[in-house]
Amino acid sequence: MLFTIIIPVYNRAEKVKPTLASVLAQTYRPLQVVLVDNDSSDDSLSVLQEFQAQHSADGFEVVVAQESHHTASATRNRGFAEAKGDWVLFFDSDDTMRPTLVESYRNAITQHGGALDLVATKACLHSLDGNLRNLPFFTTDLFANQILHSIFSTQRYAVRREYFAKFGGWNNDVLQWDDWELGIRLMLGQPRVATISDALVDIYESGEASITGTNFSDRIGRWEQALDEATHQVANSNHPEKKRMLHLIDFRRIVLAAHYAKEGKTEAARELYAPAYRRLAAGSPLRRIILPLLYHITSKGLRGASRLAKCLIRN
Q1: Cβ–Cβ under 8 Å, residues 157 and 191
Q2: Residue 125, strand partner residues
Q3: Are 203 and 97 in contact (CB under 8 A)?
């Protein structure tokens, strides 16, 4: 069973080295490693080519490609075009995988007789302040948890190549939360999923805004683009829980509005919050009461609102 690991790289000549070392340390073979330089202005391409020259071998094929279009999505799609594996992992160039990651994916696939489309794992977040915490991870209600917690973020799953190809790849028009939007499209296909309870991926916080939230207000409009695209995809689907998933996306709008409020962008927060609240509160006295409270606690930097929302929004 061949796995392809795809890593886009842009101006990370030094940061990518631990990532590459973690790929090389994988206990599983055969692997195809596709490294795609996104027109870097530093020595990234040379670092990738050196890794290829030193380590490409039978059972560990290293491919170096280039992509001039400056988006992570275009770069990942370029890598996917090179993929030969039955299964594909996308990975970021500043994170690391623990040695048994791919082997654990293979074991899960084998245990299910190959009848899977996705295998997901826990991940450990290394915060800028040095703290470690496991990111939210769930084994049930996966679609809802993707919307609320982005459990299928870039580094956290392997996907069967043929299944991935059905959904159009990474969306070049979505500039933020592109992995969140992609995960929603993958969930719309109602995949067969297995989960691994060990944290086998280490994600290093960069200071840029993420699904968990810091620094949102300098990219107002880009997050909404992902939310709107996800809404479009779900609304035009035949998924049996379409109505609930649309409501949960509206709750993501409320969470984003709360982050704007926390960062002092009250007008942007109000414009995003009001229509989402109206849609969610319609016909539900309980939601009318609880949603403003969840908005408030999120705007104060407290966690837990999304877990409560999952119980509150059941249809």
Answers
A1: no
A2: 133, 203
A3: no
- The answer to the question of residue 223 being in a domain is yes
**First CA to last CA distance, the chain:** 40
In a domain, 225, yes or no: yes
Angle at 307 between CA 120 and CA 226, to 5 degrees: 65
DSSP state of 57: B
Tell me, yes or no, whether 212 lies in a domain: no
> Distance (Å, rounded) from C-alpha 184 to C-alpha 71?
20
Q: What values do phi and psi take at 14, rounded to 5?
A: -90, -45
pLDDT tens digit string along 281-294? 999 999 999 999 99
Q: Given a cut of 90, is residue 210 above it in pLDDT? A: no
- Pairwise CA distance, residues 287 & 55, whole Å: 56
In the chain, % of residues over pLDDT 70: 97
| Structure tokens belonging to residue 296 | 């408030």
On whether both 25 and 153 belong to a single domain, the answer is yes
Q: Among 134, 136, 132, which Cα is nearest to 144's?
A: 136
Over residues 39-91, the pLDDT tens digits come to 999 999 999 999 999 999 999 999 999 999 989 999 999 999 999 999 999 99
Of 229, 207, 227, nearest to 218 by C-alpha is: 207
CB 89 within 8 A of CB 164: no
* Number of domains the chain is built from: 2
**Helix H or strand E encompassing 119:** strand 118-126
Q: How many CA atoms lie within 13 A of 237 on its CB side?
A: 22
Q: Quote the distance between the C-alpha of residue 115 and its chain's center.
A: 23
**Residue-range definition of the domain harbouring residue 101:** 3-204
- What does the angle CA 295 – CA 184 – CA 146 come to, to the nearest 5 degrees? 50
Classify 148 as helix, strand or coil. helix
